[in-house]
Structures are given as structure tokens and as C-alpha cells.
């Protein structure tokens, strides 16, 4: 089975990338034909003002990929921007993809609001409007087929209109000051490329006629859109593209040092490039159960980010002991972190050594990318010849 996945080059990888994505890729390459794409064009959707950083980020990401087990002898590792056929098929797919498919994509607004840190504002507006919308819908002089769906539709649209109104200066300007987001920031994110990046994702999958795409549950809409675009093209011009299947994978929400999801933007991540001392400092700064203030206080392991890591890093027989000792107060948070650090270093030390070795020989990376890109492009060229023949254009 041909499997394709990719990642935007945003720099060094952290533990969240490994447990959420890379670990699964390493397993997939053992039994499938795997293609792993450096999605540098996708990086431009949000980082187009910092394009000079992308080459260095590509290098850092490749070093981590290979150190973590992505094998160039088992998988095709290639760079998106070096396969120009992606751009041609993106143009063609853009012509046949209804704009509404992209606007209805649930991750479009979610991604935008996360980048601009507008999620809490969105929730605040919805919370304040919900009862008013319910009352409005109940008084409509028309037959309503689905009250709940209509209410959510109105809530989404009114909230979005209010956020636009805020940036246009029609609402309290103090809110903008608190958010520390400017009108320019808001509209600079609203690009054609940002709206259309799911179409480019569909190209990435379909141009190689991939049969499966490993994704977490939050990415399912993107795979479904790829299937829709494949069906639409096939219906218009004849069977050309297989409909890719989603390989649903468990992607644990790995907490960072502050308890939030591990993310570069939150400055709470543990990187594979971190030194042993840097990792130690980060682990010892981890948030724990806020009600367990000192050793002797009973803890709540299920709410503690440190215990979450023990589930991945600690031997099962020891895990139960740690859980019970935490609950009874016998185990303090400092000692619990030291135990977690021990398990984490067992994972990181060989990877860190492997990473350093690859870094010393990074002059080989262009050859790896060149070789993989050549294999990928051979397939892409063949697909585009078929597409042009079906279109009767080009």
C-alpha cells in the first residue's frame, strides 16, 4: 500500500512530533511503500514573511527525521517545492473546487484563530450570544427543520461577523489592545493560499495516487476533501485518481512544561536537539497537580502532566507504584520529576547521539533529498501527463 504524509518545516522537532507523528511513520515504513514530504510550500501559508528561515528549518527537520528512524533506504523523502508538478495540479484543482468546500472546512477557522490567539474571544462571543440566538430561532415565522443545526450555523456566522467588526473598529478597541493583535495581523492571515491550502494538500496526496494517509482525528476533514476532489475530477474527466483512505492514528496530546499542549509557539517544548542539562531544567520546571503543594499531600496523578509522561516512559510495574505513592502522598513532585527524567533520558540519549552524528555529516542531506525528490517527481510527471490527456489542455 502506498502511504503519503508530510510535515511543514518549522525547525527542530520536539517530543510532541515524535509521539504524535514520527513514531507512527517509522512503523509504517516497515510494511508499506512510504512517501514523506517536506512541505515547504505549505510553510509559506503562515510564514511567507519569514521565507528566509525555511531552508534552515528544512535542514533541522530532516536531521530529526533521520535520527528518529525515518530511513531514506526504506522511504521516499522528498521536498515539495522541488516537484513543480504540484503547482500545476494545484492550479487545475483550484478551478474545480467550490469555494464553499474550503470555507466549510472546520480546520480553516480553527487554525486561523489559533494563530491569532482568538480562540478565547470566539468562545466568549458564542457564550454571550447563545441564549439570544435560541430565542431568535424560536420566534422565526418559518418552519425550522433542525433547530440545533440552525442555531450553531447562526452562532458561527454572527461570531465571525463580530470578530471582523472588532478589527474594523466597530466594537470596543480595548479588546484589541488586550489581545495584542492588529488589524493588519488579522487580514494578513486571510490569504488565498491560507484558504486554499487544503487543495494543495489534496494535490500532495493525489499526484502520487496514495492509497492511505496517516492522520489524527482532527485532520480527517482534509482527507475527506481530497476524496471529494478526486471524485469531482474523476466525474468530470474520467477515472484518474484513487480515493485515499485515512489511516486513523492515535495522536496523544502531549503536554508541555506549562501543562498546555506541547508547542514551539508556547515555548514549552522539549526538543531532540536539547542538551541533557537543558532537558533536566525543563523537566524540573514542569507544572504538576496544583493541589499537591508539598510531599505528604495526596496527589491526583490523572491530572498531572508529569504522570502523563510516566505512562509512556516508565515500566508498567513501576508505573502502578508511582501512581499509588503519589495518591498517598509518599512520593513528592520533585522526586516524581526525577523519575520521569530518568525514563526520558533513556529515550533521548541514543536519539541525541544519533542526531549529533547526522549533524556532523549533514553535507549528505542534499543528496538524500535529491534522490527522494527524483523518485517522487517521476511519479508526479506521469500523473500530470495523464491529467493533461484527460483535460485535453496543455
The general outline is globular
Supply the CATH class of the largest domain: Alpha Beta
Helix content range: 55-70%
Which fold name is given in CATH as the topology of the largest domain?
A: Rossmann fold
- How many beta-strand elements? 5
Radius of gyration: 24 Å
State the helix count.
17
Distance from first to last alpha carbon = 31 Å
Strand fraction: 5-15%
Task: For the structure shown, list the relevant keywords.
394 residues, mainly alpha, Rossmann fold, Tyrosyl-Transfer RNA Synthetase, 3 domains, 3-stranded parallel β-sheet, two-stranded parallel ribbon, 60% helix
Record the SSE blueprint.
Layout: E1 2-7, H1 15-28, E2 33-38, H2 40-47, H3 54-67, E3 75-79, H4 85-96, H5 99-103, H6 106-115, H7 119-138, H8 147-168, H9 173-179, H10 183-189, H11 192-206, E4 212-215, H12 220-237, E5 245-248, H13 276-284, H14 305-313, H15 316-328, H16 333-360, H17 365-391
Parallel strand pairs: 1-2, 2-3, 4-5
Describe what is shown at a glance.
This protein has 394 residues and is mainly α.
Structure description:
It is a single chain. This protein is mainly alpha-helical. It has helices at 15-28, 40-47, 54-67, 85-96, 99-103, 106-115, 119-138, 147-168, 173-179, 183-189, 192-206, 220-237, 276-284, 305-313, 316-328, 333-360, 365-391; strands at 2-7, 33-38, 75-79, 212-215, 245-248. The strands form two sheets. It has a three-stranded parallel sheet with strand order 1-2-3. The chain has a two-stranded parallel sheet with strand order 4-5. Helix 4 crosses helix 17 and helix 14 (305-313) packs across helix 16.
Amino acid at each position: 500500500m502506498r502511504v503519503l504524509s508530510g510535515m511543514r518545516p518549522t525547525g527542530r522537532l520536539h517530543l510532541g512530533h515524535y509521539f504524535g507523528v514520527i513514531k507512527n511513520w517509522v512503523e509504517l515504513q516497515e510494511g508499506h511503500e512510504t512517501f514523506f514530504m517536506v512541505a515547504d510550500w505549505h510553510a509559506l501559508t503562515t510564514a511567507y514573511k519569514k521565507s528566509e528561515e525555511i531552508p534552515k528549518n528544512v535542514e533541522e527537520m530532516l536531521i530529526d527525521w533521520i535520527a528518529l528512524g525515518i530511513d531514506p533506504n526504506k522511504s521516499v523523502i522528498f521536498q515539495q517545492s522541488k516537484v513543480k508538478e504540484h503547482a500545476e495540479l494545484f492550479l487545475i484543482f483550484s478551478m474545480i473546487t467550490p469555494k464553499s468546500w474550503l470555507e466549510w472546512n472546520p480546520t480553516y477557522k480553527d487554525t486561523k484563530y489559533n494563530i491569532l490567539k482568538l480562540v478565547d474571544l470566539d468562545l466568549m462571543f458564542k457564550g454571550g450570544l447563545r441564549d439570544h440566538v435560541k430565542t431568535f430561532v424560536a420566534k422565526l415565522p418559518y418552519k425550522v427543520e433542525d433547530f440545533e443545526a440552525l442555531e450553531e450555523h447562526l452562532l458561527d456566522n454572527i461570531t465571525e461577523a463580530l470578530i471582523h467588526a472588532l478589527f474594523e473598529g466597530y466594537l470596543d478597541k480595548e479588546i484589541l489592545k488586550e489581545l495584542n493583535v492588529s488589524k493588519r495581523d488579522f487580514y494578513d492571515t486571510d490569504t488565498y493560499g491560507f484558504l486554499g491550502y487544503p487543495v494543495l494538500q489534496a494535490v500532495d496526496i493525489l499526484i502520487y495516487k496514495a492509497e492511505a494517509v496517516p492522520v489524527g482525528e482532527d485532520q480527517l476533514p482534509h482527507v475527506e476533501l481530497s476524496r471529494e476532489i478526486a471524485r469531482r475530477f474523476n466525474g468530470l474527466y474520467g477515472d484518474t485518481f484513487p480515493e485515499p483512505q485515512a489511516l486513523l492514528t492515535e495522536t496523544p496530546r502531549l503536554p508541555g512544561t506549562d501543562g498546555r499542549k506541547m508547542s514551539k509557539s508556547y515555548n514549552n517544548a522539549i526538543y531532540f536537539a536539547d542538551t541533557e542539562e537543558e532537558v533536566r531544567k525543563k523537566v524540573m520546571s514542569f507544572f504538576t497537580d496544583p493541589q499537591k503543594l508539598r510531599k505528604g499531600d495526596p496527589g491526583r496523578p490523572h491530572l498531572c502532566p508529569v504522570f502523563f509522561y510516566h505512562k509512556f516512559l516508565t515500566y508498567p510495574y513501576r508505573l502502578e507504584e508511582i501512581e499509588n505513592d503519589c495518591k498517598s502522598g509518599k512520593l513528592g513532585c520533585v522526586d516524581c520529576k526525577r523519575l520521569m527524567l530518568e525514563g526520558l533520558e533513556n529515550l533521548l540519549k541514543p536519539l541525541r547521539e544519533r542526531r549529533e552524528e547526522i549533524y556532523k555529516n549533514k553535507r549528505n542531506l542534499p543528496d538524500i533529498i535529491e534522490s527522494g525528490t527524483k523518485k517522487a517527481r517521476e511519479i508526479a510527471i506521469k500523473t500530470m501527463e495523464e491529467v493533461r490527456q484527460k483535460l485535453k489542455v496543455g
